[in-house]
Amino acid sequence: MRGVPGETGAEGWVAPRGRLARGHLPRHVAGLFRFQPGQPAVAAGLRTGLALGIPLLVSALLKMPQASWAGMAGLFVALVDKGGPYRTRARAMGAMTVLGAVVGFVVALPSPLWVDVALTLFWVTACGFARSYGEVPGIVGMLLANLFVVSLALPSHGLKGVLLQAAYFVAGGLWSMFLALVLWPLRPYRPARLAIAACYEELAEVADAVAGWPMEGPSRVGSWAAVQRAASMRQALETARATLGATRQGRQEESGRGEHLLVLLEDADALSLLLTAMSESLDEAPRQGACRKVRLEAQHALGALAVDLRGVVGALVRGSVPAPTSWDAERVTRMIQSEGGLPEPARSQYSHGAGLLGRLREYSAVALDVASRLESGEPLPERDTKPFAPEEARPRSWWEVLRDHLTPESVVFRHALRLGLTATVATAVAEGLGLNHWYWVTITVIVVLQPYAGLTTEKGLQRVAGTLVGSVLAMGLVHVLPARWMVLTAIVVLICVSVSVRPLNFTVFQVLLAPALVLLAEIQTGDWTLAGVRILNTLLGGGLALLGIRLLWPSPEHARFPEEVASVLEADRDYLREVARTPVPSEPALREARRKVGVALLAAEASFQRLLSEWKGPAKELEPGMALITFARRFTAAVTALAASRVWHPGPDLGPVSRYASDALAELSAALVSRRVPSRLRHEAPAVEGADALARTQVTRLVRQLGVLHHAVERMPPALRASGDGAGPAPT
Questions:
Q1: Is the pTM of this model over 0.85?
Q2: Cα separation, 530 vs 518, whole angstroms
Q3: Alpha-carbon distance 461 to 261, whole Å?
């Protein structure tokens, strides 16, 4: 495969033109102005504005400055609310309320500088470990670290004042929770329904894409767009699984809706496996002559399947009753039988495709039937629940999760310690120098410093750019808005809009949030020159964050990426062994093995995206990495096609081929981890005894993908073979 980005390589793989061609800094600058797809979070913006605005209004009317702590609590607790299951949201918001009050109480007591520095090291490091438990705990940890620093900087008002401050914080947190969980409609299963609907929308996109494949031209199954669709589908399934699991947790009395959604989720996972196998089957099958008519009919059936899948989406999102289309899965079989001129192996391949269409029809019928019963809650017939036997995974304890990260090899461990040390230095320098509003320096460090160098640079640029523009805007508003109530109104409006656009563009969020925070601080202190102070403190904090990521345990992505890909190859090896096992494994077992590969692929793709943000070397040197990810997915798809046929057509003994491929994958994985060139592949794969035309075609395809993977590992550049300590030649 030629390594020219943007050109078609082996088996039709197309690298995305232009993604690797940009320079290092221009790529980060371009990210400042890139808007993500989606809609503004208007409801979240309104809730956050009310959570902050009402306490501020009460504080102003009653002339009780300390009551503004309720507004700060309302803002922080609202920022914790990232949507999802109500139980999870209530737990996160409640934790923020209670822990925020405790932190404010303990830290607000008077203490000397050395105690402040020691407490900063301990607490900020502990908050950094919150990332171990997921995105929302990570946000809670970051906000608690910020609250700690703010409380540390405020003057002490004695024990009574500290107790009053904690009480106001609890009141503000409860007010924010009331807004989010009570005043807004309480529909416990709504987040799970939307998450599962996203799965069916992704499935419909895949079915539509395959239905639209042209008769001529290169293969489309290995294009970068197809790789991204596969990644999106797996990500949607994982998100839905986590959301539904959190929603059902602790609900002893089920109305039946949880069971309906569980069946729909497992059905979506099964459909994803079958669609992958179907796309592999169509891609391998010939298209000319007598095959053309059969292929067109199969693609027409997939287009009708996409319509049915979107009917399930409508039922989940809008509560409508889906109307099944009348596509006939047996029509392809009848066409194959009537076409006497179909040669082998084309006849076997299209017969296999017809069988896959029949199974797709069965599973889509189950999805439509279950979706039509969602609103009524009508019990499910046994035929709908029988195909699925998901095993409930034992949730891991908090200590097990933490123990996994209590090692210097853990990214979370290194980040937490780096965050704590850098924040401690920032606190010692800024407070020791007596800087005005010194805590803005430490807060900037906490917000900017990320586990990865590229993300830290990007977040730093966003923070600095947002603060510069926002602070200038704040200075302008000070002169335009003469009355205090006008300033309060401006603060609430800015908070509402900033939170609404946060999912779309973080820089715009910062630009709008900065003047709101500056105005809020100026109202409390009466100091109308704080915009310039904030700019200087932000620049100092951003500089310290960049020094921290460079000097303290630098962990460039080029050192992690090969290990992430090695994990994918190991998961692929286990998946193939499961497929080749005799007797043939059950569908739930196959789906679980494939799920592990999918999760490993998501981690490898995320690592590659981070590598893009750090890379300064020639773009062409990253092409083997892209090829590795692409063809690891292709290999997984080839194994999936083999698995789909073995469920209803056991075929020959795959033991020799499985051992050959497993040894090759183990060698490639070891070569990636040890940063060396892999040993040569054996030229000939073992023959499959008693294999029919379909099995021979599928095994040949699998071995061919293995060869491309081997070639990609061979071509890995020296920069990606550097030792994992960050001292290698790769530019980071």
A1: no
A2: 7
A3: 42
